[in-house]
Amino acid sequence: MIEMRKHCSAEQKITILRRHLLEQVPVSDLCDEYGIHPTLFYRWQKQLFENGSAVFEAHTKSSKDLQARKVISLEEKLVRKNEVPSELLEEYVKLEKELEDV
């Protein structure tokens, strides 16, 4: 049973909602067991359904962020990879000129 206090944690709210939605425990039983008012239960349920899409959007957003960071990293590697041959070519030309002068 949840201690009587001003607020339930997010985990406790989810546990209560999950028991109703997945385990089919009646709202009245949950409210009696946890000492909450049915209107509070239905407010939590409404919040869950209204804001539940944020969970999936956050996942999509984090996946996009991860993908964007990976693209940036690969682009940086590509730039470095292209710089190395040009630096080597410069050194080669420089050495060739030095050898011609000798």
Overall average pLDDT: 85
User: What order do the helices and strands follow?
Assistant: HHHH
Rough shape?
rod-shaped
The total domain count is 2
The count of DSSP E runs of length 2 or more, i.e. the number of strands, is: 0
Separation of termini? 91 Å
Residue stretches low in confidence (pLDDT < 50, at least 5 long) are none
The portion of residues assigned to helices is over 70%
Radius of gyration: 31 Å
Share of residues in strands: under 5%
- Biggest sheet features: none
Structure class: mainly alpha
Helix run count: 4
How would you describe this structure to a colleague?
- The protein has 102 residues and is mainly α.
- The protein folds into 2 domains: 1-51; 67-102.
- The protein is 81% helix and 0% strand.
Task: Give the helices and strands, then pairings.
Blueprint: H1 10-21, H2 27-34, H3 38-51, H4 53-101
Please name the defining characteristics of this protein.
2 domains; mainly alpha
In short:
The protein has 102 residues and is mainly α.
